[in-house]
């Protein structure tokens, strides 16, 4: 839910699994090359014509070979005004008449309340060096410059196509194997409890009427109980994308190449959470959670995730472990984005019913809660008696 589809960004390669077909990060990930940085910032509230000279100046400063290009040869267009970003395509007309393009991503206002920019910027150079996302060309105070990727953004319906689902699974395994330096502690629960603390009252009377219906004591109790249950599953910790919706997946149909983009929510987290969060996004923009993949579709994904080279050789018990893990973390994904929506409802300038989205995600959590808890508890009971 954190980002929206757009035509930009990069590719993937890296290495890692754990309990039930483990995903161990490679001991070393190639160190990224030095990336140019600038202390400059761009006022995202400016209209594009007023913003353009600042953007051109940044590109001249950060993009290799562009410093001496006359400003008249630059053109800028909006790729997308996403939920947490403004994306611009900056092109330069070459002497041969061909354009050379980059993407400039500007952070949206107040997004630091839901996105840890320090964490993101620490990871991007390593993900870029490992082949994920667009190639990182430069960083500035409130954004980044990256290579422009010619590919189409997937639709929610695309994700469940068996061939594409298999490629997503294989690429996700590679992503989970990237080694990002620093603490490997999972951040999911830290982020959820942080969101709980930041959920504030509303000044708007109509929003406040809906807001008072929310029981934060109930949510806190639910989070603690869910965390206690999931801790017992000992899910492998990996570097997770955490926002693998269709808008963050791109495909070059001619080359058959799949790209993961937008790593704003990336962190060390749980394997099952990242997969479950992706499955929840099968619901699409209409949030039809009846589209959540059935067991057969999930097993197809798991086979390609656990053993990309020989999916048919995956052991049944490994798939069962991942099935239980994923379908319990399914609940954590609903809680995370429900609380995210509460914060956005308070601070986001975007015309979107974030409060309504909170009730939708928390309602789905409550709808699925008992069956997901029962699945995990039955599995754990079988292990104890086994």
TrEMBL record:
<dbReference type="Pfam" id="PF01633">
    <property type="entry name" value="Choline_kinase"/>
</dbReference>
<dbReference type="GO" id="GO:0004305">
    <property type="term" value="F:ethanolamine kinase activity"/>
</dbReference>
<protein>
    <recommendedName>
        <fullName>ethanolamine kinase</fullName>
        <ecNumber>2.7.1.82</ecNumber>
    </recommendedName>
</protein>
<comment type="pathway">
    <text>Phospholipid metabolism; phosphatidylethanolamine biosynthesis; phosphatidylethanolamine from ethanolamine: step 1/3.</text>
</comment>
<dbReference type="InterPro" id="IPR011009">
    <property type="entry name" value="Kinase-like_dom_sf"/>
</dbReference>
<comment type="similarity">
    <text>Belongs to the choline/ethanolamine kinase family.</text>
</comment>
């Amino acid at each position: 839910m954190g980002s929206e589809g757009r035509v930009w960004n990069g590719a993937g390669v890296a290495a890692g699994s754990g309990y039930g077909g483990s995903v161990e990060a490679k001991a070393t990930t190639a160190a990224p090359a030095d990336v140019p940085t600038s202390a400059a910032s761009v006022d995202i509230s400016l209209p594009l014509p007023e913003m353009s000279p600042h953007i051109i100046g940044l590109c001249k400063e950060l993009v290799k070979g562009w410093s001496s290009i006359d400003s008249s040869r630059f053109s800028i267009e909006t790729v997308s005004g996403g939920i947490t970003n403004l994306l611009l395509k900056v092109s330069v007309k070459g002497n041969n008449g061909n354009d050379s393009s980059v993407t400039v991503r500007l952070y949206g206002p107040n997004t630091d309340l839901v996105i840890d920019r320090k964490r993101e910027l620490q990871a991007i150079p390593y993900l870029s060096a490992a082949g994920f996302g667009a190639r990182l060309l430069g960083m500035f105070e409130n954004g980044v410059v990256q290579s422009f990727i010619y590919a189409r953004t997937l639709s929610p319906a695309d994700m469940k196509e068996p061939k594409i689902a298999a490629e997503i699974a294989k690429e996700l395994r590679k992503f989970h194997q990237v080694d990002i330096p620093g603490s490997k502690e999972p951040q999911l629960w830290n982020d959820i409890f942080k969101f709980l603390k930041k959920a504030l009252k509303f000044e708007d009377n109509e929003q406040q009427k809906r807001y008072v219906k929310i029981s934060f004591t109930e949510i806190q109790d639910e989070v603690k109980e869910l965390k206690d249950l999931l801790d017992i599953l000992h899910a492998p910790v990996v570097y997770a994308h955490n926002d693998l919706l269709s808008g963050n997946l791109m495909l070059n149909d001619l080359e058959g190449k799949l790209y993961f983009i937008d790593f704003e929510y990336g962190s060390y987290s749980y394997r099952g959470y990242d997969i479950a969060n992706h499955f929840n996004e099968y619901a699409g923009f209409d949030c039809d959670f009846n589209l959540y993949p059935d067991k057969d579709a999930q097993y197809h994904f798991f086979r390609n995730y656990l053993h990309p080279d020989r999916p048919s050789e995956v052991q049944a018990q490994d798939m069962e472990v991942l099935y239980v893990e994923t379908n319990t973390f399914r609940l954590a994904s609903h809680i995370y984005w429900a609380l995210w929506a509460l914060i956005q409802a308070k601070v986001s300038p975007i015309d979107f019913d974030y409060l309504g989205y909170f009730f939708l995600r928390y309602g789905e959590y409550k709808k699925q809660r008992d069956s997901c808890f029962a699945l995990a508890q039955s599995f754990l009971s079988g292990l104890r008696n086994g």
